[in-house]
Amino acid sequence: MRKFTAPALLVLVLALCSCSLPFVTQVPLQTVPTNVGAVYSAKPTGVTIVVRDARPDPIVLGGLTVPSQPDRILRLFATDKPGQVANAFKAAATEAVRTLGFKEGTDYTLELSIRAFLVEAYRASGFSTANCIGYGEIESVLKSSDGAPLRTRVARVVYWEDTTPVGSFDEVAEEAISRIFAQAAWEATVRIFQEQFAAEASAASLDQALRVAQGTGQEVDRREAIFWIGLVGKGDPAVEKALLDLFRTSKEQNLAEGAAEAMGMLDLTNTRAELEAVLSGSKKFAKWEIDDTECVWYLLKPLSLLGSPDLDARIPAKIEMRSKLTDLLHFLQTGEMPKLNAKQREDLENGKRKLK
Fold first, then answer.
1. Main-chain phi, psi angles of 184, to 5 degrees
2. Largest alpha-carbon pair distance within the chain?
3. Stated pTM of the model
4. What residue spans define the domains of the chain?
5. How far is CA 106 from CA 46, 47, 99, 147, 231, in A?
6. Over the range 22-49, which residues count as b (16 or more CB within 10 Å of their CB) and which as e?
């Protein structure tokens, strides 16, 4: 369903760059709630969240291309109000802090700076899934009540989210792009608190998240639970078994991919050989198709997190979107964003003028 069939994929950037294309859709980002409950014990201390949108130009969210015009941006998605990206990050970071057991207050301040963010969207036809890929670089600074920095870290994140719009293109931004921003804020928030406080999730909370992930509820809720397991499930022996089971047997591609991603996020080195075997084609599971760009990415990402070398050379020979996968790996390794071609820069500039 999410397989790429075109020889190229659009790159769209949160920057500004002119022609009759693209169409512009202005939509609000949606708040994405965390549905896993409090994973750490409640604490009496409180946290203030501050978000700075430090991108060179914070207007454009992302864009869409199709196979017939792979080098053009046909549609831009933009926020309908100023400051929405920062507000979306703040709402998601606040949810993450609550999930970690903290409350609102002034004992600590978490400052998140969105240094860069890029969102790509691709749709094979007018009735197919919109594949959205988000890259981000986020600086997190945790400060004490007197403003003294306690810890600073910079996160590079890449997420792949899908939406099949039914009523309008608004749904692409409201669903997939909103989830991308939420996941970035969750990961940036959780990681710096884990480093500062070395907290471990309770067995009961992880058990609840695993029940959601392995249950029969909505796929989006199950995928979110898997993502949170990838953030907080380190050290629990039941987690590796559950993730491997989902990776091998899930009937939903999205959940199998999420399990692979979580194995990399948790540094589960015991899973590396199996990930490599599926990527090479020597081991096959139902929902893993190594001619599918999305599937291959969800093998490359955990292997990159686990430190596997020479991943560019391991991309299957017949993959249609090799350049996109090498771009993603290069970003994770260096933080360098892919470059736009001249037509894409022209489309982005034209879209910017339409927003005025």
1. -65, -45
2. 57
3. 0.90
4. 1-197+337-356, 201-320
5. 6, 5, 17, 10, 25
6. bebbebebbebebbbebbbeebeeebbb
Other C-beta atoms closer than 10 Å to the C-beta of 245 total 13
Rg of the chain, C-alpha, whole Å: 20
Which tokens hold the place of 226? 């898997």
Lookup: tokens for 7: 């020889």
Give the span between the Cα atoms of 287 and 308, in whole angstroms.
Answer: 23
**Cα–Cα distance between 308 and 301 in angstroms, integer?**
10
pLDDT tens-place string over residues 184-230:
999 999 999 999 998 888 888 889 999 999 998 899 999 999 999 99
Phi, psi values for residue 290, rounded to 5°? -85, 15
Separation between Cα atoms, residue 347 and residue 72, nearest integer Å = 7
Q: Which residue is listed with tokens 């995928």?
A: 223
What are the tokens at 100? 């970690």
Architecture of domain 1-197+337-356: 3-Layer(aba) Sandwich (3.40)
In angstroms, the CA 236 to CA 130 distance is 35
Lookup: tokens for 243: 């993730």
Output DSSP code: residue 166: S
